[in-house]
Amino acid sequence: MFDELSKYKQGNFFFQATDSLVEVCNVDRNKYGLYLVYALRKGRVELIYINKSGPPEKPGLVASPGDIADDLRENLLNGYQFGEIERKNSWPVQMMIEDIEALHVHWYVTYDDKNKDLPATMKSRILQIYQGIYSCVPRWNKI
């Protein structure tokens, strides 16, 4: 569905509510880009969330990757979602509420030595594609 993401360094991992997100997250530090979260529930797979990490939204503002605290790993683990609660704590609760068996997280490094595509720009493109197909945003993007 998102062919434009195929050129980036990428990875994925599964997360169950009983797992430690810190332990299963396989994103290296100082990587910047976006991630897509798919819910596995009752034999179905649904894209439920699209998000991004730093760098700043204007090119050229980054002296070095270490200047940005909001890398992909930091954002995935400690970013707030479902109120003022870090994802590593809020995701398991939300998964139980929604009866989600597992999350399959796909991550893409869009801003590095090879590519300088701003994560905010890429997130916007992917959301536009999704909205063009489904006429809405993924459900966790609405919350």
Automatic annotation (TrEMBL):
This is Uncharacterized protein.
